[in-house]
Design brief:
The structure holds two protein chains of two kinds.
Chain A: H1 2-81, H2 83-94, H3 99-116, E1 120-124, E2 130-134, H4 147-154, E3 160-166, E4 173-184, E5 190-199, H5 205-210, E6 220-227, E7 230-233, E8 248-250, H6 258-263, E9 268-273, E10 279-286, E11 293-299, H7 300-303, H8 305-364, E12 368-373, E13 378-381, H9 383-389, H10 393-397, H11 408-419, E14 425-431, E15 437-449, E16 452-461, H12 463-484, E17 489-494, E18 499-502, H13 504-510, H14 514-518, H15 533-546, E19 552-557, E20 563-573, E21 579-586, H16 588-693, H17 699-730, E22 736-739, H18 740-754, E23 759-765, E24 769-772, H19 774-791, E25 797-805, H20 810-813, H21 824-831, E26 835-842, H22 874-884, E27 888-893, E28 899-906, H23 912-918
Parallel strand pairs in A: 23-25
Antiparallel strand pairs in A: 1-2, 1-5, 3-4, 4-5, 6-7, 6-11, 7-8, 9-10, 10-11, 12-13, 12-16, 14-15, 15-16, 17-18, 17-21, 19-20, 20-21, 22-24, 25-26, 26-28, 27-28
Helix pairs in contact in A: 1-8, 2-3, 16-17, 17-22, 18-19, 19-22
Chain B: E1 6-9, H1 13-25, E2 32-35, H2 38-45, E3 62-66, H3 74-83, E4 92-96, H4 99-107, E5 114-117, H5 122-132, H6 135-138
Parallel strand pairs in B: 1-2, 1-3, 3-4, 4-5
The chains are: A alpha+beta, B alpha/beta.
């Protein structure tokens, strides 16, 4: 399609360009012809114009000249007829030597010359002897006019114009008029005297001829006369100097010369070449009364100048129009050609693609395609063929199509089939390289390429199709068997009530026959009792949403009016889900059994109701018993009310106690705070006294003041400790797993810094990880370790051992005091996994265990201040801290043998409060 | 020398005497103005009531504030100082009477610049003043002038 289009476009383009070329040529022709006519018309026009101009000017001049000469002749005649002149002349002739007469005549002549602007007047006698003249000449007989005219005029009684000649003596050009005067001489005889009047032609006649009345570069008028075989130009020429009476041009050898034409008798407008050889337009005229001819001429180039201008303009215009038209035509043609070429390119591309597509179609087609020659030799196969048969392309090319068949029978059949020219499509069996046989459908067609015949075999593997068909057949047989088995009712219908087909079982269930069905007398809505329709719609909706419904039970009205219970289920198919395939199971038997059961159940209910009456009786009895119990319960409740009262009282007491505790704490805080104030004053002013007035006091006074200062400072420390203690009571516990060894090291390091020279050793035994509040435990450890440090200051080396006790027996526990074994209760605590027991042992002063019960009380001291200073609050604080953790604390010691402090920490802190109470015993 | 005063807010005359003595002993040339309760302190700072005439006086260089004072307590006074734009940048050193109080001050976001434990020892005072960067404004080596205003 595309191809044709492009071809059309191409031939159209060719046509178009042909039309274009023709129209261009004819356009040019028309232009040329009209140009030709235009030019020739103009040539004529300008020629006429020139002719008119030349003729009018020429005629005018010729006429004027003619008149002028005629007038000059008449003037001279008038002179000759003048009586006075004649008398004077006669007198002179009577006595030519009389000077008086001579002078008188000369005056006359001079007068004439002056009046008439003659250059000369000379009088000659009949023998051409000079008689008299003006102006005077040196040799009047030599300086004579040309003799030829003289002879002619002497015999002519009339005046005549001789023409213009050059003098033989001075070569000047002169016009000569011969005037014969008849008079009488001194002897009384008739005598003719010739008066020759000379006029300088340069004064009037030459300028007149030579001037042109309009502006022109080349126009000129010239006078000439025939002189034998030549023409002689009389006046000076415009374009050549020194020609007056000086230029002869041969008539015969210059026939184109207008003057020559004139000499040969031609008059009027002529075209020719002038004396320069230039082409000219000329008008030839005769000057009447003279021997002259006149030519007024104009160069053809000037005459036709405008024509040439028009011509060039026209030619230029034409050329540019032609060029523009030709160029635009060329451009359009180029565009067309380009378009055509692109079109052609596209077509070629499409063809190539098509070829590729066909090739790939062949190659990758799902069908097997084999190209063989007329001898059945395989030439080419597609990919599918290689895949299906298992031969490579090379192997194929060595095979014939006949070898593909599974057996000779198929081969021969194929031969007959292939010989047919039409409808050679047949089924057969082929064999692959592996020996696998498969059914094929073969279509063979003849193709012709480059005058060679080929066979194209299109082979389709139909083994799958045949298998599928077989399977389908089997399935449908199974379905049919099922459908007609009457095991179950099957129905094809729709949701609007139509039934398209059913099996016999369904018809049996509803009691209709096949005729009813075929005549559309069965509508499932009509045979459904009204109470089941809603149920049906509900399940139809379900099937529409989910594809199928869960089977359900309903009843149909049979043809005889009886009802039958069925179990029905269906799927909906079709685009709108409105076609149904349903199974229907007759469950009337089961329903009957169910009804039987219901009946039996009713019976059972009856029996039950008698039983219930009896139960009611018993229940009432029970109710009485129950009320009695209730009564008892109430009594118990009253008693428990008492108990609650008591609980409330306890709670109240507890609240009061807490309040009292808080008040006490606040009180102790406030007291210790306010105590500090006077103390500050005492110590402060004592110091001031000591600083400012030390000189006024003696040794004892200063000592007193120092004591005052020391005492008040000690009290300050005491108050701080009390505050600390009270703060611990108020502090909230924040439990974490902490390693005590870190804090212990820090505290000992701090203490060691205060006494850098002291020797000490710190020993750790076992794990010291406990569950405790870090800041509180640090306060407790600080107090214990301070004590250890303090009480062992007298030892050579302080040894502090901190460790863990996991198990203990009563016997081995006490290190220092064998007399007072550890109470069993504490052994129980140590051995209990719930607690972790830590001991801190020093090698200090120790104490007597009989004061052990005072050890952890506030302000209790076992050593004098001079021996070991202290406030007696340290261990009270320790106890406070440990109890707050729900742990235990006790000590073991003996004088001079060191002290061990035991601390237990609750590893499960929730039961802390109970333990606190229990372990108070040590106080 | 027209040094800015130090304002001492203290109700205990003993402590007052000891504090002033400590400052004097250590060549503090600034005059020390003393007020005895919270109300007076605020009147002094905001130039009102009995102190209305002091408007043109220089504001204190440093405030030494006791916590336990009548009427408004020290923390309340501090709060007011910090809320008022005119006084909120004044350095305030709190005078504490116990470690307990020190903890209270630390516990609150009180706005105190420093604290000194009573009785005021010169070493403590120097540390506090050092911390405030006021060293050269308050301490100098000149002999003490006897300017001391007790208002």
């Amino acid at each position: 399609m595309k191809n044709e289009n492009t071809m059309n476009t191409f031939s159209e383009a060719a046509n178009l360009s042909r039309i274009y070329a023709i129209s261009l040529i004819s356009f040019i022709l028309v232009l040329c012809i009209s140009g030709y006519f235009f030019i020739s018309h103009n040539l004529n026009y300008y020629r006429e114009l020139a002719e008119k101009q030349l003729e009018s000017v020429g005629r005018l001049k010729a006429r004027e000249l003619s008149y002028w000469i005629h007038e000059k002749i008449r003037d001279s005649e008038t002179i000759s007829q003048n009586q006075t002149f004649r008398e004077n002349l006669a007198t002179f002739l009577e006595n030519p030597d009389d000077p008086q007469q001579k002078a008188s005549l000369k005056r006359w002549i001079k007068l004439l010359c002056d009046i008439e602007e003659y250059s000369e007047i000379n009088l000659y006698d009949a023998h051409f002897e000079h008689l008299l003249g003006y102006p005077d000449k040196k040799n009047p007989n030599i300086e004579k006019p040309p003799l030829a005219f003289f002879n002619e005029s002497i015999n002519n009684p009339k005046s005549s114009f001789a023409g213009i000649f050059r003098n033989t003596y001075d070569q000047s050009a002169n016009m000569y008029f011969f005037v014969p005067i008849d008079t009488v001489d001194n002897k009384g005889g008739q005598i003719r005297v010739l008066m020759v009047v000379t006029i300088n032609p340069h004064t009037f006649i030459f300028p007149y001829v030579q001037t042109w009345p309009t502006v022109s570069d080349t126009a000129e008028t010239l006078l000439f006369k025939r002189d034998g075989e030549d023409v002689l130009f009389i006046n000076e020429l415009r374009h050549r100097k020194n020609t007056s009476l000086n230029l002869w041009i041969d008539i015969k050898s210059n026939p184109q010369l207008p003057a020559a034409m004139g000499a040969l008798g031609k008059r009027g407008l002529v075209e020719g070449l002038d004396y320069r050889g230039e082409p000219v337009l000329a008008v030839i005229l005769k000057v009447e009364g003279t021997p002259w001819l006149m030519v007024s001429k104009l160069d053809a180039s000037e005459a036709y100048h405008n024509v040439w201008v028009y011509l060039w303009m026209a030619v230029g215009l034409m050329l540019s129009v032609v060029i523009i038209v030709a160029l635009s035509g060329l451009m359009i043609w180029n565009l067309k050609r380009q378009k055509w070429l692109i079109g052609k390119l596209n077509v070629e591309q499409e063809n190539r693609e098509l070829a590729n597509r066909i090739l790939s179609l062949n190659k990758y087609a799902n069908d097997i395609i084999i190209l063989a020659d007329s001898e059945k030799n395989i030439i080419e196969v597609n990919n599918r063929a290689c895949k299906r048969y298992g031969f490579s392309e090379n192997e194929f090319t060595k095979m014939t199509t006949s070898t593909l068949f599974a057996d000779s029978k198929s081969t021969s059949m194929s031969t007959t089939m292939c010989s047919k020219t039409t409808n050679n499509r047949f089924e057969s069996v082929h064999m692959a390289k592996s020996g696998e046989k498969f059914e094929v459908e073969i279509s063979v067609s003849e193709v012709e390429s480059n005058a060679k015949k080929y066979q194209q075999w299109i082979i389709r593997d139909i083994s799958e199709r045949i298998r599928a068909e077989k399977e389908l057949r089997e399935t449908s047989e199974k379905m049919n068997a099922f459908f007609s088995s009457n095991l179950i009712g099957i129905l094809f219908g729709d949701i609007y009530g139509n039934i398209f087909s059913t099996n016999d079982e369904f018809l049996r269930i509803i009691g209709y026959d096949r005729d009813d069905l075929q005549e559309h007398r069965i509508d499932w809505k009509n045979i459904t009792p009204e109470q089941y329709l809603d149920l049906d719609y509900k399940y139809i909706r379900m099937a529409q949403e989910e594809g199928s419904c869960t089977p359900y039970e309903k009843e149909y009205t049979r043809k005889d009016g009886s009802r039958i219970w069925v179990y029905i289920g269906y799927v909906l198919i079709g685009e709108k889900h409105d076609k149904s395939v349903a199974f229907i199971l007759d469950i009337s038997g089961r329903k009957a059994a169910e009804n039987e059961i219901i009946y039996l159940c009713d019976k059972l209910k009856e029996a039950n109701s008698t039983l219930e009456a009896r139960v009611e009786e018993r229940t009432q009895e029970l109710q009485i018993r129950y009320e009695e119990v209730e009564k008892l319960n109430f009594e118990i409740l009253e008693m428990s009310g008492d108990l609650q009262d008591k609980n409330a009282k306890i709670e109240h007491a507890l609240t009061q106690l807490t309040a009292a505790n808080k008040e006490l704490e606040a009180f102790s805080y406030s007291v210790s705070h306010d105590l500090r104030s006077p103390l500050r004053a005492i110590s402060g002013f004592s110091e001031a006294l000591l600083e400012d007035y030390a000189k006024q006091l003696d040794e004892t006074g200063r000592d007193y003041l120092n004591r005052l200062i020391n005492a008040s400072q000690r009290m300050g420390v005491l108050i701080d400790d009390i505050l600390k203690l009270s703060r611990i009571s108020r502090a909230e516990i924040n439990l974490n797993r902490i390693d005590l060894s870190y804090d212990i090291k820090n505290i000992i390091n701090t203490l060691a810094e205060t006494e850098p020279d002291r020797k000490y050793e710190l020993v750790f035994n076992g794990s010291l990880e406990v569950l405790a509040d870090q800041s509180l435990v640090r306060v407790a450890l600080d107090n214990i370790l301070r004590n250890s440090w303090k009480f062992s200051k007298k030892r050579e080396e302080t040894v502090i051992t901190v460790g863990e006790i996991t198990k203990v027996t009563t016997d081995k526990f006490c290190v220092y005091n064998d007399d007072s074994p550890i109470p069993d209760e504490l052994v129980g605590v140590i051995n209990n996994n719930k607690y972790k027991t830590i001991y801190i042992r020093d090698n200090g002063a120790g104490f007597d265990m009989k004061y052990a019960d005072k050890l952890f009380g506030a302000f209790q001291r076992l050593h004098s201040n001079s021996e070991f200073e202290g406030t007696g609050i340290g261990l009270a604080t320790v106890k406070r801290v440990i109890l707050k953790h729900g742990g235990h604390v006790w000590a073991d010691s003996a004088p001079d043998r060191g002290t061990t402090i035991y601390l237990t920490f609750n590893n499960q802190p929730d039961t802390g409060d109970n333990n606190e109470r229990k372990t108070d015993f040590i106080n | 020398m027209n040094a800015k005063p130090i304002l001492l807010i203290e109700d205990n005359p003993d402590d007052e005497e000891l504090t002033i003595r400590a400052l004097k002993k250590n060549n503090i040339s600034n005059p020390v103005d003393v007020v005895r309760d919270g109300e007076q302190a605020l009147d002094y700072l905001f130039r009102r009531g009995a102190y209305a005439g002091l408007e043109n006086n220089l504001p204190p260089q440093l405030i030494l504030l006791d916590l336990k004072i009548p009427k408004f307590d020290g923390l309340e006074v501090l709060k007011q100082i910090r809320q008022n734009p005119a006084t909120k940048l004044l350095p305030v050193v709190i005078l504490t009477s116990s470690k307990e109080e020190q903890d209270i001050i630390n516990g609150y976001d009180s706005g105190a610049n420093s604290y000194i434990r009573k009785p005021v020892s010169f070493a403590d005072f120097t540390d506090a003043v050092h911390n405030l960067g006021l060293y050269w404004l308050i301490l100098n080596e000149c002999p003490p002038t006897q300017k001391q205003g007790v208002v």
